[in-house]
Design a protein that fits this description.
The chain is built from 15 helices and 14 strands. The chain has about 400 residues and is of the alpha+beta class. It has one domain: Cytochrome p450 (Orthogonal Bundle), CATH 1.10.630.10. A hairpin with a 2-residue loop joins strand 5 and strand 6. It is globular, with a radius of gyration of 21 Å. It starts with 19 loop residues before the first helix and ends in a 5-residue tail after the last strand. Bound molecules: protoporphyrin IX containing FE. Protoporphyrin IX containing FE binds next to helix 11 and helix 15.
Length: about 400
């Protein structure tokens, strides 16, 4: 294999999962590699411009930590090329802002996501996790993705945003359609746009309600917060809620599903974890996150002519940082292809780094902890019964379906 053998804008390149062998070739031979345009619309938008693939750990950090040169706002964090209208709408999302604007918006909401706040949520998350496992425990088999992995993140998004819990089925459908644009089984251009529009409208209605009747949900605080003397606008609120739906549910679901799959593929690690869940679970979660990051990449756009490792990058060109490659950089991780739940330290970049470091990281970790603790103690012989079906995507390492079986709970 050599640099250029795979087109990373083509979802078919991820058909059997992330191309870790190709990433290794890039790290060794072309750490700042030009992926040419393919002119195609994979379902997320046309790829008319090429992009630089950044595959080494330190370079992913440097790019993420230099928003002045590598902007999230100019072209958004999504790889395809967008129309001016799309750009204007995407830029209302926190994830697609640059400092100083980004800092102002992030400050309004980050208090709701601190490790301390998440710790306070722990008893509730535990109770929800118990309920989720109750839902399948007597069946002896189920689809892990829909029955176990997807439910807890959705319940929490509903709680955070103040949506009625019954609406989680709608939200599940919308988030799948929004993120599944490249997978004909999940979505297409029309359903993707319709889902984004429905989610936006739903969020707007919620915002209007909370404006009249403030409460202590995160969204209410956002709505009543001020940025430079003016309250946050409707469209900004709806954009934030849409981001929460997409970023907060799909990712944690994927990490949970990959986690179970990884444990089944590594029986020695599965046994070790079950031998002392309290002791090994936190490390296992970090290793699951390192091994298969749910989000493949984030994009930045150069705001000036610059270079990385001597490779010139012109103003306006795209740079894509691949977390799955950084997490297996042999300079920072010993024996990186080994799945080792005792790995320490484990400074993976799955939640990004720098100003945009994932706002939901503590919440995601807490959810993973609660759901795995419940599964490992109540359904300890869980095994995969059919090969998992992967999402066709160049952005997310999603799993669509994964049948599992286990001894039913008495
Ligand atoms: C395993 C689960 C998750 C993964 C792998 C993940 C990954 C990421 C990554 C890589 C970024 C950085 C984007 C960048 O640098 O451009 C990010 C940002 C973000 N994530 Fe997560 N995320 C997860 C869970 C969550 C959850 C549960 C929530 C909320 C409920 C959330 C909300 C956000 C938000 C709001 C941002 C934007 C932050 C900003 O721009 O300042 N994420 N996430």
């Amino acid at each position: 294999m050599k640099p250029g053998d795979l087109d990373l804008a083509n979802p078919d390149s991820f058909e059997t999962g992330q191309p870790y062998d190709y990433f290794r070739v890039l790290r060794e031979q072309a750490p700042v590699h030009w992926n040419p345009p393919n002119g195609q619309d994979s379902g997320l938008g046309p790829m008319l411009e090429g992009f630089f693939v950044v595959s080494r750990y330190t370079d992913v950090i440097d790019v993420s930590r230099t928003p002045k040169i590598f902007s999230s706002a100019v072209g958004t964090v999504f790889l395809p090329d967008h129309t001016p209208e799309q750009l204007a709408s995407f830029r209302l999302m926190l994830i697609n802002m640059d400092p100083p604007e980004h800092v102002r918006y992030r400050r309004l909401i980050q208090r709701g996501f601190t490790p301390k706040m998440v710790k306070q949520l722990e008893p509730r998350i535990r109770k929800h996790a118990t309920r989720v496992v109750d839902g399948v425990a007597k069946q002896g088999e189920c689809d892990f993705v829909e029955g176990l992995a997807a439910v807890l993140p959705l319940i929490l998004i509903c709680e955070l945003a103040g949506f009625p819990e019954e609406d989680r089925h709608k939200i599940f459908k919308w988030s799948n359609q929004m993120i599944g644009g490249e997978d004909p089984e999940m979505s297409n251009k029309e359903t993707q746009q319709a889902a984004a529009a429905s989610a936006f409208l739903y969020a707007q209605e919620l915002a209007a309600r909370k404006r009249k009747e403030p409460d202590d949900t995160l969204i209410s605080k956002y709505i009543h917060g001020e940025i430079e003397g003016r309250t946050v606008g409707e469209a900004e609120i709806a954009s934030f809620v849409t981001l929460l739906l997409a970023a907060g549910s799909e990712t944690t679901r994927t990490a949970t599903s990959h986690g179970m799959w990884l444990l089944c593929q590594h029986p020695d690690q599965y046994d070790l974890l079950r031998s002392d869940v309290d002791r090994y679970l936190p490390g296992a979660i970090e290793e699951i996150l390192r091994y298969h990051p749910p989000i493949l990449l984030m994009r930045r756009t150069a705001t000036q002519d610059t270079e990385i490792r001597g490779v010139p990058i012109a103003k306006g060109q795209k740079v894509a940082t691949y977390y799955g490659s950084a997490n297996r950089d042999e300079e920072f991780f010993t024996d990186p292809d080994r799945f080792d739940i005792t790995r320490a330290p484990n400074p993976h970049l799955t939640f990004g780094i720098g100003e945009h470091f994932c706002l939901g990281a503590s919440l995601a970790r807490m959810q993973l902890n609660c759901i795995f603790r419940e599964i490992l103690t109540r359904l300890p012989d869980m095994q995969i019964s059919e090969p998992p079906r992967l999402q066709r995507s160049s952005l997310a390492d999603g799993i669509k379906e994964m049948r599992v079986r286990f001894t039913p709970e008495a």
